[in-house]
Amino acid sequence: MGTHVSGSGYRGHMPTPDPQAAQPDRPGPLELPLADAGLHRQDQQRQRPDWLDHVWSLRDTRVLSLRDGLAPTCDHRLVLTPAAGPLPETAVYLGSFREDSGHLVAVSLSGSPQGAAAEAEMPLSAETPPAHAADGDHLEGPAADAEWLDLRDVGHRLGALDAALLTQAVAVTTWHRSSPHCTRCGHRTEVRSSGWMRRCPHCGTETFPRTDPAAITAVVDDAGRILLGSAYRWAAHRYSTFAGFVEAGESVEAAVVREVAEEAGVEVDDVRYLGSQAWPFPRSLMLGYLARTSRPEQARADREEIRDVRWFTREELRDEVASGRLWIPSRSSISRALIEHWYGGPMPDAEEEPAG
Ligand SMILES: [Zn+2]
């Protein structure tokens, strides 16, 4: 099979939408809503044992609170609060706006109503009101006004820095909640490196917040159509690109070919990398590809995971989505970005499913 891979992460703005044009494999750019926005992660500093205490004591440090993965937002911006009181056990260092100031810390709150009430009543100094990450603007009013939302629902509406901040915070706090014990001896581990490592006091094993690579692929044919599938676990009218985890010992390119063949029955012979996106549900790294097939007639659903597969021209998909007859993934997802990359611009708004 003549699979080859080319290209790298493209950045920038979409070309003017041109649904009439048949450009099944246009090169980038692929615009991704949760892309890293250049937050300084300070990976050297955060290894200092006293780093979090130091950061917590600074007046311009801001805290992003998460409750069961939900973040406080207001007008599509994150609501950040000053660091107050003792350093919480769940604190994780995220990074800084600038090289040496404007530090950001994530804190996981209890999911209980008591936890929510405590957050709403968090005292705010008039000199250090809550601020948005995106531009440092100050928000009038208490955090009690905030709406607590899921990254999947709000990610595409946030500014680039807010989105990157929330993605990182969800990823690392989820890891702490799900991995409290040593993978080698089962002893409870202790947090190190400002929240970026856990160490076992019994056997010394160190663990880090790893990610699982997953390939996600938009399949196109020579006529400029896209192949989408509907999985059994979704609503029947929801269609998306094809995705699957990279297996142990497998390359991503091989995973693309295997997943598309398994789920959609199609042999692809041209696989191009377009970009990646962290998707911390719970810990995926989505690697986006465009793959071409010269045998579109092979398409058939596997009937195990995928209920149906359909080829769409741009006009067909646009009309189906605009009418609400067909749902595609949310704007926060790389799947949506791949579909719109093929389409040549944003798809029309219609009924959107809440989660990608
Ligand atoms: Zn251990």
Walkthrough of the structure:
- The chain folds into 2 domains: 163 residues, Nucleoside Triphosphate Pyrophosphohydrolase (Alpha-Beta Complex), CATH 3.90.79.20; 132 residues, Nucleoside Triphosphate Pyrophosphohydrolase.
- It has 7 helices and 16 strands.
- The strands form 4 sheets. Strands 11, 12, 13, 14, 15 and 16 form a 6-stranded mixed β-sheet that branches. The chain has a 4-stranded mixed β-sheet with strand order 4-1-6-5.
- It is globular, with a radius of gyration of 22 Å.
- Bound molecules: zinc ion.
- The site of zinc ion has 8 residues, from loops.
Short précis:
With 356 residues, the protein is α+β, with helices and mostly antiparallel strands. 20% of the residues lie in helices and 24% in strands.
Features:
alpha+beta; 356 residues; four-stranded mixed sheet; Nucleoside Triphosphate Pyrophosphohydrolase; disordered N terminus; binds zinc ion; six-stranded mixed sheet
Map the helices and strands.
Blueprint: H1 51-56, E1 62-67, E2 70-74, E3 77-78, E4 81-82, E5 92-96, E6 103-109, H2 113-120, E7 147-150, H3 151-154, H4 160-178, E8 190-192, E9 197-199, E10 206-207, E11 212-221, E12 226-231, E13 242-245, H5 252-264, E14 270-279, E15 284-293, E16 306-312, H6 314-323, H7 334-343
Parallel strand pairs: 1-6, 11-15
Antiparallel strand pairs: 1-4, 2-3, 2-7, 5-6, 8-9, 9-10, 11-12, 11-13, 12-16, 14-15
The structure holds zinc ion.
